[in-house]
Design brief:
about 200 residues; alpha+beta; Rieske Iron-sulfur Protein; 2 domains; three-stranded antiparallel sheet; elongated; Ubiquinol-cytochrome c reductase iron-sulfur subunit
């Protein structure tokens, strides 16, 4: 091998090594940049949409997720719970959800896209306490005999039905808020984005 050939070979080796190091540096720089594009926990709490898997939620069970620093309830209602909604209507302050506390697609008796699943902000509209679940009817829930099931605010006694609608003559002036949401799949709900904005 001539001196010229050795120099060309050395240059190729140097060029390959430099390219490899440059490529590794580019990847090392790109990974944090790409990771920064996904919402942080702080951004999620500030309002980024939250995906909720409801596939393992049994009928009658409720889970709580956080969106915009608020508790959001996802309740999988049983057929009996859905029947209780109609029974509660004569005693409700706003049974038809006339006040704008929910998107149009939740302006119905069950206040949801799918009757089976209630998605509601778990904050009382009186002074911001978080109501407790009182899903069992009557005395089973420690309530009056005619109680059909729902939520009770422990701070001042406001009562809500299983669709988050407030009963008449309660301290809470309005129904519970229904956040924007949509289904990404049969068992996946995206809270905070309904694609309408």
């Amino acid at each position: 091998m001539s001196v010229e050939q050795k120099m060309d070979s050395g240059r190729r080796t140097l060029l390959l090594a430099t390219s490899a190091v440059g490529g590794a540096a580019a990847v090392a720089t790109a990974v944090p940049f790409v990771a920064s594009l996904t919402p942080s926990e702080r951004a999620k709490a500030a309002g980024a949409p939250v995906e909720v898997d409801v596939g393992k939620l049994a009928p009658g069970e409720m889970m709580t997720v956080e969106w915009r620093g608020k508790p959001v309830w996802v309740l999988r209602r049983t057929p009996e719970m859905l029947e209780a909604l109609a029974k509660a209507e004569p005693n409700l302050s706003d049974p038809g959800s006339e006040k704008q506390q929910q998107p149009e697609y939740a302006k119905n008796q069950h206040r949801s896209i799918k009757p089976e699943f209630l998605v509601a902000v778990g904050i009382c509209t009186h002074l911001g306490c978080s109501p407790s679940e009182k899903f069992k009817p009557g005395a089973e829930a420690g309530m009056s005999a005619d109680w059909p099931g729902g939520f009770l605010c422990p701070c001042h006694g406001s009562m809500f039905d299983l669709a988050g609608r407030v009963y008449k003559s309660m301290p809470a002036p309005d129904n519970l808020e229904i956040p924007p949401h949509k289904y990404l799949a049969d068992t996946t709900i995206l809270v905070g984005d309904d694609g309408k904005a």
